[in-house]
Amino acid sequence: MNAIEAERLTRRFGDFTAVREVSFEVREGELFAFLGPNGAGKTTTINMLCTLLRPTAGTARVGGHDIVREPHAVRRRIGLVFQDPSLDDRLTAWQNLAFHAMLYDVPRRVFEERAKRLLELVDLQDHAHQEVRTFSGGMKRRLELARGLLHQPKVLFLDEPTLGLDPQTRRHIWDYILRLRDTEGTTVFFTTHYMDEAERADRIAIIDHGRIIALDTPDNLKAMIGGDVILVRTSDDARAVERLREALGLDPRPTAEGVLVEAPRGDQLIPRLLGVLQNGAEPPLIVHSISLRRPSLEDVFIKLTGRAIRDEEASPLERMRLSRRLWSRR
Amino acid sequence: MAFLKTIYTIWYRDLLRFLRDRARIISSLGQPLLFLIVFGNGLAPAVAAGMGGVDFRAFLFPGILSMAVLFTAVFSAVSIVWDREFGFLKEVLVAPVSRTAVALGKVAGGSTTALIQGSLIMLLAPLVGVRFTLPQVLTLVVMMILVAATMTSFGILIAARMRSMEGFHMMMNFLLMPMFFVSGAFFPLRQVPLWMEWLARVDPVTYGVDAMRQTALQGLVPEPILRMLILHPLEVNLIALIAFWALFLIPAVWLFSRTE
User: Do B238 and B146 touch, CB atoms closer than 8 A?
Assistant: First the structure.
């Protein structure tokens, strides 16, 4: 059975279509990533799957239940970690967990034993009786992970689980997520705009402008790029693109870092590339550097959308969210 | 069963937060006490002539009592806006529980904290020379519960759609303060302009103050003078409070359960 089945899921806000006929399946026990730039429709999709937002059209089944017709049954079977902290920071970690257990009808005995084990899993056992407002951002996120699993959900949703955290904390959070998945066997659905995070998933759906534009394993996605990626930096990238297109029949792409070329055998292309750029052009182009690498998800994204995820500036909403996070350390 | 447990859970969290926050308990006792001691003692000689021999402090005390209940109740309900702002509301909204039960739990929580706050004020009554018998205390507690439940429901009705704390301050200045001022908490509503009399009539706080005042002054003041200081018979006040409560509670629960 599939943990999630979305069928032509659509959500409009006025004239704006945030999510457009999105269909996909997530298998049980899978670690599934929703990758896309800010504003691509990731959070809107997650909110619909979690029954926080009603779809304008289409539907989905989560844990075997319809999100529109049986929201209660769905809620019972999912755990959630939101982009923004959703803890009561005036209560202790333990009290937050206890509150959650009461809402999800976890019996007291079971709760105590599970809460202890989960707190150990996320390394918060020594802070159980501390008020949450004294926690760092990383500690809060870890507590939310533990809380999301307290009622043993079939599917755990993580909406940008590491947003606003420093790189080291991000790595730790991922260690915990993977450990939780391995020990609890939970299906994990997460959204991210970080390539390295998506890379950890079993399968990735790439979403842009509310549409899924590719869905496959990280390896298969990267195999869409035929072989290697060559990055050339020259004195005049625009002319270099033109020259490569004319002389070698390639399909180069200019980016902020240089000209990108895909090739089945990059190592064999480099000498010809160098020759064409240095000799054929008038005046000759100066080649600053050439690098060869295996394709990354970033390359896949550029190929599919014609632009890089990291080119996008933080949206006003995200900037607001981050600054609010600073202010809200009450 | 699950329904009752949800109410209990929400109520329990409100209570836990309230009891953990000693500073808030003490600071929210400060304002009513200030009014009581400064206004009470400051105005007592000046208004003595119009009070028919009743000590102004004894007259003022029920007003202050309802003030404490009123503000604690509304604040507690409006913590929904805080919860929304700081994300906690999502944790509740995505849980497999009835939203109606959540709203009712909030009413129970707000009413309880307001009742505790009011009871603390009542303990301080001897400070201003007001003493109550046990039946008076019990009747006052019932009144406080009614006022607290009505005003918490009012707060939830306001907070259900409110997205920002600015909106909350607006409400404080343009709704809550006037409601408190025209309720007769500070002065008898017998000889006021007609517009104020009408405002007082549609103000739920008026009925709470009036009910608490006649309970508090019972036996302390001769019957004819008491009748001069109060507006309605006790039963009318009770019915009015219950009617207001229903008027606020039903749309509050309805609005809250439709929150996205």
Answer: yes
Quote the domain boundaries for residue A232: 226-294
A72 neighbourhood in chain B, CB within 8 Å:
96
Same domain (yes/no): A209, A231: no
Distance between CA A188 and CA A99 in Å, rounded? 23
ipTM surpassing 0.90? no
A103: nearest CB among B16, B90, B97: B97
B88 to A328: CB separation less than 8 angstroms, yes or no: no
A13 within domain boundaries: yes
pLDDT digits (tens, 9 = 90+) for B10-30: 999 999 998 888 888 888 888
What per-residue confidence (pLDDT) applies to B152?
A: 94
Q: How many domains does chain B have?
A: 1
B99 to chain A: closest CA residue:
A72
In terms of Cβ atoms closer than 10 Å to its own Cβ (0-12, 13-18, 19+), residue A167 is: exposed
**A53 contact B CB<8A:** yes
**Per the structure, how many domains does chain A have?**
2
Same domain, A264 and A157: no
Average pLDDT over residues B168-184: 86
- Nearest Cα residue to A24 out of A201, A222, A283: A201
pTM: 0.81
Q: Which residues of A touch B25 (CB under 8 A)?
A: none
Nearest-angstrom CA–CA distance, B107 and B109: 5
Per the domain annotation, does A313 fall within a domain? no
- A175, part of any domain: yes
- Going by the DSSP 8-state scheme, the letter that residue A164 receives in this structure is T
Looking at the fold, whether A109 and A245 belong to one and the same domain comes out as: no
User: pLDDT for A153-183, tens place per residue?
Assistant: 999 999 988 887 788 888 888 888 888 788 8
Q: Which residue has the higher pLDDT, A222 or A327?
A: A222
User: Domain boundary at A195, A221, A247, which?
Assistant: A221
pLDDT tens digits along A103-125: 999 999 999 999 998 998 888 99
For chain A, the first-to-last Cα distance in angstroms comes to 45
